[in-house]
Specification:
It contains five helices and three strands, in the order αααααβββ. The protein has helices at residues 3-16, 26-46, 52-68, 74-81, 92-102; strands spanning 112-114, 120-121, 167-169. The chain has one domain (3-195). A three-stranded antiparallel β-sheet has the order 2-1-3. By secondary structure, the chain is mostly helical. Residues 192-199 have low confidence and may be disordered.
Length: 199
């Protein structure tokens, strides 16, 4: 798919995103529109890095979500626009990796949000416990994590580099307060900075 066709699909997505069910609160409406613009801009910045095949897959998944709110990006974008996570500024390379990881059929249905920057990124589905392999010199149930050699999409958060073990489950984010909730790229309830300290 050409860059021009990708840009056309992104413009369609940009028009579609603000139409999501939104609050009548003008501040929330404004934050959602800003988030939609950021999402489209980050995708546009990453798109020149895609191979032709990657470009086609990303564009198809974006079109699927834009038309039906289904597909590989549906969980991420729904959580993003419902305020369960944040979209920080990402380098084009990081955005590319994020978009491609969400396309994998190996994404786990449970998703995690980085406690440091608020980015929701996919985790690879775990194999059955009987197939887990201990890392060299590790003992089950003892010592520091990680203990097992488990497949991951990312060795650290693609947004800020934090440990992938420093996260909140996305479905529980509304029950905690984090400093990232006071930053741009987040559309949920704004948290007063002094309250954003729950561990």
């Amino acid at each position: 798919m050409s860059y021009r066709r990708m840009r056309t699909r992104l413009e369609e997505l940009d028009r579609r995103l603000p139409a999501l069910p939104i609050s009548e609160n003008p501040h929330e409406v404004k934050r959602r529109r800003q988030l939609a613009r950021r999402l489209v801009r980050l995708i546009q910045n990453a798109s020149p890095l895609f191979t032709e095949e990657e470009d086609e897959k990303v564009a198809s998944a974006l079109a699927q979500w834009g038309e039906t709110e289904m597909g590989p990006y549906s969980g991420w974008l729904r959580d993003l626009f419902q305020g369960h996570c944040r979209l920080p500024e990402l380098a084009p390379e990081s955005m590319k990796q994020l978009l491609l990881a969400w396309l994998s059929p190996d994404c786990d249905s449970l998703t995690s949000v980085c406690r440091n920057c608020g980015l929701l990124y996919p985790r690879r589905r775990r194999p059955p416990v009987t197939q887990w392999k201990l890392l060299p010199e590790k003992v089950p149930g003892e010592g520091a994590l990680p203990r097992y050699d488990l497949p991951e999409f990312f060795s650290s958060c693609p947004g800020c580099g934090a440990s992938p073990r420093d996260f909140d489950w996305s479905h529980l984010v509304r029950e905690v307060s984090r400093p990232w909730m006071a930053l741009d790229g987040y559309v949920g309830p704004v948290v007063a900075p002094g309250l954003a300290t729950i561990p």
